[in-house]
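Supplementary Note 3. Input sequence used for the single-chain structure prediction.
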Amino acid sequence: MTTKTDRDSTTVYSSEQGRICPACGRPVTGCVCRAKDDAPKGDGTVRVSRETKGRKGKGVTIITGVPLGQDGLANLARQLKQRCGCGGTVKNGTIEIQGDHRDLLVDELKKQGYPVKRSGG
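The predicted structure, written as discrete structure tokens, is reproduced below.
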């Protein structure tokens, strides 16, 4: 059974799935349009660190705490990868850049106006 509104005739509730997001048409618990633009909450400081765990000794530079949504993180990661001349990815709200580029990335993020701290050793 599905209930519709009179105004715009979009589904707002489904007895099988519960409340439905009017923008994307998915259940509210699995809504992709709201989660896409939410920036992660933090203390406002971008942290740059190095990690080798689970990578067979190969290091990557991890950037966390960037106050951008998923699209903004992807664009920033693209710019930083071009600046470093290496590969990388965006995973779970963090940017991973291959290799140890902490000093270069701290300088680049400061130029873009982010409050940056180098964390770790």
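Residues 76 and 95 are 9 Å apart (CA to CA). The longest strand covers residues 46-51.
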